[in-house]
């Protein structure tokens, strides 16, 4: 299975998780390739709106290009959404991170696996009522 297929399948998995829990969620086709900033997923319920960039990783580190983060920030700011990074490492479940949890390098933002799970929060937290 190609890396692109894994990413698409992971995004679809999250969409199903949101819908099963009473949230509306859509995958943004062509996210990252559009002339306009767009996240991978937009999820919403009542007064909560998330712009989500999804990543899957086979290694112990997840790198995210700075351009992806800038686009996510711009979309979230325009839509008044909360920007979230959803990361799934091999053989582990999803963890969700705020942008300030990422470390900045010269070309990317990154998060080591251990930090992702210690600083991040689970799906139940993201859908919890306020």
Question: Explain this structure to me?
Answer:
This protein has a single domain (3-127), classed as Trna Endonuclease, Chain: A, domain 1. Helix content is 34%, strand content 33%. The radius of gyration is 14 Å and the shape is globular. Strand 7 and strand 8 form a beta hairpin. The mean pLDDT is 91. It has helices at residues 3-20, 66-79, 113-119, 123-127; strands at residues 24-27, 41-45, 48-57, 61-65, 82-89, 94-97, 103-104, 108-112. The strands form 2 sheets. It has a 5-stranded mixed beta sheet, sandwiched between helices. The chain has 4 helices and 8 strands; from the N terminus they run αββββαββββαα. The chain has 130 residues and is α+β, with helices and mostly antiparallel strands.
């Amino acid at each position: 299975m190609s890396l692109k297929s894994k990413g698409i399948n992971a995004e679809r998995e999250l969409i199903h998780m949101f819908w099963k829990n009473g949230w509306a969620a859509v995958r943004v086709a062509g996210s990252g390739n559009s002339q306009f900033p767009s996240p991978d997923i937009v999820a919403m319920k009542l007064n909560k709106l998330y712009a989500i960039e999804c990543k899957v990783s086979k290694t112990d580190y997840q790198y995210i290009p700075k351009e992806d983060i800038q686009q996510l920030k711009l979309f979230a700011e325009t839509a008044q959404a909360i920007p979230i990074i959803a990361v799934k490492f091999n053989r582990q479940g999803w963890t969700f991170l705020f942008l300030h949890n990422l470390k900045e390098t010269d070309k990317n933002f990154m998060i080591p696996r251990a930090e992702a799970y210690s600083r991040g929060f689970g799906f139940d937290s993201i859908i919890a009522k306020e």
